[in-house]
Amino acid sequence: MSLHHPDLTQFPPRSPRVRLGGYAILPRMLDKGRATLTGKHGEYHYACPLDQAFLDFAGIDPEALKNELAKSDTEVLAWITANAKNKRTVPEIIAWTHWQENRAPNNPDGREYLNGIHKAVAPNREDIITWFDVLDADDFASYGGKA
């Protein structure tokens, strides 16, 4: 899969666990944004609530970021660092990423939603607890994997 032109009708975006500049979610969001620009986003949505968590934390406008997506990941990260309204320290980024990686539903509706996806894509797995767990399992199952 080309990082500059991902085809999310054929392959999932990178896992939300993959980091760029210490940020979880960011590489996945870049994949979805680039695929959106080429019409190859499939069922994925750029600037979805998960992406918005990063955008809010960094203080980045999703439309402004979209204009940078023809660049490499490294160049996009440099743009984010220069243009972020919220200038985050390394410890803040590490703590935020850790929190995102371990975030699970905190209300009954969220838990019911996560459990529904879990049952649909990996009913026999007992290790799916967080949002990242369910996203990874769903991506795997959506492209033919048996979770």
Explained architecture:
Helices cover 52% and strands 0% of the residues. The protein is mainly alpha-helical and 147 residues long. It has two domains: 1-91, no CATH class; 104-147, no CATH class. Helix 6 (108-121) runs parallel beside helix 7 (131-142). The longest helix is centred in the C-terminal third of the chain and has 14 residues, at 108-121.
Features:
147 residues, 2 domains, globular, mainly alpha
Describe the structure concisely.
The chain is mostly helical and 147 residues long. Helix content is 52%, strand content 0%.
Strand content: under 5%
User: First CA to last CA: what distance?
Assistant: 22 Å
Mean pLDDT: 92
- Tally of distinct domains: 2
Unreliable stretches (pLDDT < 50, length at least 5) are: none
Number of strands: 0
Helix content: 40-55%
Structural class designation:
mainly alpha
**Gyration radius, in Å:** 15 Å
Per DSSP, the total helix count is: 7
* Major sheet size, sense and barrel closure: none
Shape: globular
What pattern of helices and strands is seen along the backbone?
HHHHHHH
